[in-house]
Amino acid sequence: MAELQLRSVEKSYGNGFKAVHGIDLHVKEGEFMVLVGPSGCAKSTTLRMIAGLETITGGEVLIGDRVVNDLVPGKRGIAMVFQNYALYPHMQVRRNLSFGLRLKRQPKEQIESATQDVSGVLEIEELLDRLPKQLSGGQAQRVALGRALIKQPEVFLFDEPLSNLDAKLRASMRVRITDLHKRLRDEARPATVVYVTHDQVEAMTMGDRICVMKDGHIMQVADPTTLYDRPANAFVAGFIGMPEMNLVPAALAGGKGGQSLTLDGQSISVGKDLEARLESSGGRVTMGIRPQHLEIVAADADDALTGKIVNLEFMGHEVNLHADVGGETFVCVVPSDQFDKNLQRGDRVGLRPRTSKMHVFDIHTGANISLA
Length: 372
Known about the structure:
CATH 2.40.50.140, six-stranded mixed sheet, 9 helices, elongated
């Protein structure tokens, strides 16, 4: 396996549209890197440039110590798993798995041994004599994964491989793929992976690190915990987390009691920890607080924002309470067994943020100015 590096990589089209804006990314050997972002953010375009399926118009792609810009896909040492599986319909699973090895004219015994090894790892031995049309979606995806694995590439590339599966099967395949990656690492065969998805659940549960993209730019690269707790900007804060972070305009002001945030004429303290990290003592900002970090209190409670309940969503294990505060909607997540079932739409409630979990973002650049 090998590390992967993108150095100032760009992608422009003939009509002048620039899809990728000089991005830099370093994927360590054996790392599981996830590219995530909304539709149109260029994550799949970036993956296709790594694979050699899209021409790079600026910068360099390195696999190991080789610049691969001008190499065809077959010479780059990569294997790709697609969203639509891309299995050969006229070939049995056995021949689909071994196709790449047969192209390289490897010895028959070696091909058979590799096929048995890979099918055993993926638990598809009983499928070897079936045609793709006889497979379920999950089985077909495992065969596609096996066809990539058998080639022992330097880098695995996954392009939204679970998008066509139902929710239960997606969850199962997430576990299977991450377990396979860990198993290869434990066997001293570390698999370097770049995995593209628009699903943040896949990103957060599968990636060693996650690269969040927007409009052809990299917004932040970090491990899942850092992305959740210390988002670099308002975009990452709003994209990562379910329900998404509450992001509302507010005014940051200083006073005798310390700095506070004002919204709709209501003020709340930012707390000593956050105050120590803030350089600015005034001006318009964006306040950020995750729904899980809001506490429901009495409407007239101190250091709380007063709002009116506009919606209640019972999710089974938790309740999502939506409250209007001065025209801005806040979402608060409460465990079902702690929720006051007397609360109804139209009731007034207080929402008290956990100050140690609050964020303050620059209203113009979106940068998180509350990070230490």
